[in-house]
Amino acid sequence: MASTDSSMGQDTPPESLSQGSVCEPLIYHHVKKKDGSVQVDQKSDDLNLEKDSEDDKESPYALVIRRHISEKRETESVTVQINSQLLLNAFQQVIGSYPTVATDFKESFQLKSPFQILFHYWDQLATYRDENESPEMRQHLNLLFRFMEQEIGADKRLIDGMVRKEMISFKQAWAIYHPGDLAYTEVMGKTWLMRVRKVSYEESRNRGPYFTVHTSYCDANEQGIGEATTSIDVYQKESFPSDQPAKISSLEIYPRKFCHQDKQLEEELLTRGKKYISIKGVQTKHYEGIAQYLKEPPANFWDPDMADFPAVWLPFTETGRIVLDKKTFEEDNFNDSTKVQEIPDPELILCPPYALGYSMDRKDWCRFLVDNIHDVAWKEDMWESLILEQEQKQLLQALVTSHVYPEDTRNQPEQKGKGLVILLQVCTSPRPRALANEISRHGTPGSGKTLSAETAAEMSKKALMYTSMGTLNKYDFASAFEARLQELLRYATLWKAIILIDEVDVFLERRDNKSGTDTTRNALVAVFLRQLEYFSGIVFLTTNRIGSLDEAMESRIHLSISFGQPDMEVRCRIWQQVLDTVPPDEIELADHASSVLELMKHDLNGRQISNALNTARTLARFEKCKLNLSHIKTVLKVRQSFRLRMAPEDI
C-alpha cells in the first residue's frame, strides 16, 4: 500500500518535515500475542523512523495507519490519522462536518473502521479530486483513495450491489443512512420524515443485536419552533430473519429516496406541519379516528431494567373530546421535556404526525394524529335545553360563569378555599312498592344530573372530566385513592377543566367517629375532604341516595340542586326537545302536539326518553321510511313488556 515520493530522499531528517507533508502512509501492525502482549511492527521506513511514534498527529506522513491484529492473524480494527493539510482542506470543502467525527477538519484527526464518513462521501470526494486543478491535491487524494479501496472498497461494491436491488444486510445497514439525508418512518400509518444524524450498533440482553438511527425533526414548545432529536431502534432478529438481507423499505425507518412517493408528499407534510406547530400549550379539541394510548405496567410489576423498556403504545378508536398538553405528558411519564433548539429556518415537513394529549373517555395519555384533530363545536345553546327550576338554573349559571381560576395553578397553598363545589342529588317521592325499592337502591338515573355538568362545561367552553367513586377507589386503598384523586384534581387545575364525580355517597354520609368500625371509609373521606379543600376549579358531585350529610362535607358545598322523577310537564318538554333534534326530512308526525301529549303519559326519565327515540329512529331506518309515532310506540311497548316480566307481582 505504501508509495514512494521521488522528491523525498532517505537522508532527509524527519524533524525538518512539516506535519502530513509526505504523501505516503506510515503503517503500524499491532499484533496480539498468546501471552497477551502486543507487538508493534512498522511497515514503512522511508524516513528511517525506527520506533513507534508516540503522537501520530506530529507525523510528517499524510496518513498514519494502525492495524490491530488478533492472535489468529485476523484484522480486528483499523485506525487512520489524517495529517495532510491538503486532505483537511478537501474535507472542509466537501464534507464540512460529520456527526460522529468531532472535528471541523482544521486540525489532524483520527478515523476508525468501518470509516463511515469515507464511505458516505466517496463519490463527492472523487468528484472533487477529478475537478481539482492542483496536482498536489490530486496526489494526496489519490493516496486517500488507495487507502479507501484497500479498507472498504470490497464492502462498498457489496453494499452498492445490494442497494441497487433495494436490499441491505444488518451489518452493512449503516451505509444507507447518510447524515443529513431524509429518512422515512410511519406512526399509525402516517408518514414522518426526519433528518439522519448518525447510526450506532448495540446489543440488548433480551432482544439481541440492533442498530439505532439517531435523527432530528421539527418540534415546537411554548418558547418557539426548532429542532429536536429522537431515535429509532431496528432489531436484527425482527427485521433481518436468519441474518439475511432485508428489503430496505421494510425497515422501521429507511431513507426517503427508497419511498417511491411523488413530491406531493412534502406538500401534504408542510400543511400538516403548520397545523402541528399551532398546537401549543393546553388546548381542548375534538378527535375522530385511530389513536394510541400509553400502556402502563401493572401496579405490582417491577424489573431492574424497567428504565430501559420502550414505551408501549396500543391502538384504539377515539371519538370525543381530548386535551392536548405535551408538557404535562412528558413531565408525568418521562420526568423530562423534549429539548427544542431554535433554528433560523425550521423544516415544517419534519413535524411529527401526532400530538400528545389526554383522552377524556379513556382517561389515558395518548398519541393523536394531527389530521384527525378538530376544533370543538361547542353547544352554546345547550343551556336552553337544560330543564331546571328557573332559580336553580340562574344560580348555577351565575356561579359557573363567574368562577375565576388562579393564574399560578401550581402553587397549591394559594388554591385553598377557591374551588366551587356543586352537589347534584336525587329527591324521590312516594311510588308503588316495586319502583320505590328500585329507587332506594339505585336512585333516579336520567333525571338531569349529568346533563347539568355537561351544560356547565359547554357553556363555559371547558373540558369535562368524568369519573366515579368506583374508578377512583379501584384498589380500595386510601393511599392509592389519594394518588388517583390528586392526579384528577391536578389535571383539572392545569387544564381549567370541570370535574364530574359520580356516586359520591360514601363521602357524603355522616361519619361514625365513635364506633371505630369503619376506619377505611373514614380515611377515604378524610383524604377526599383534604384534597377538595385545595382544589381551585369547579367540581360537580352526584348522588342517588343520602341519609344524613356529613358536616365537614356540607361546609364545602356551595350549591346543592335536587332532582326528581320528571312529572308530566317536564316529560312534555323533554319529548319536544328530543323530537326537535330529528332532521325534518327524517320524521313524519301527523300531529306533533298530540303526539307529544300521548308520549308524555309514559312514566320515563330523560335518559329513557332519549334512548327510546334513538331506538325508534334505528327501527325507521331499518324499515327504510321516515320516523313516525308507531315506531316510538313499538319501542315503548317492548320496554313496558320487559318491565312487567321483571316485576309481575308489583306492577
TrEMBL record:
Q: Which organism is it from?
A: Fusarium irregulare
Where is the region Disordered? 1-21, 34-55
Question: Which segments cross the bilayer?
Answer: none
Protein name, entry field: AAA+ ATPase domain-containing protein
Q: Where is the ATPase AAA-type core domain?
A: 442-563
Cited InterPro entries: ATPase_AAA_core, DUF7025, P-loop_NTPase
Residue ranges with Basic and acidic residues bias: 42-51
Q: Which domain of life is it from?
A: Eukaryota
Question: Ranges for the DUF7025 domain?
Answer: 162-259
Coiled-coil parts of chain: none
For this UniProt entry, the molecular function terms from Gene Ontology, in alphabetical order, are: ATP binding; ATP hydrolysis activity
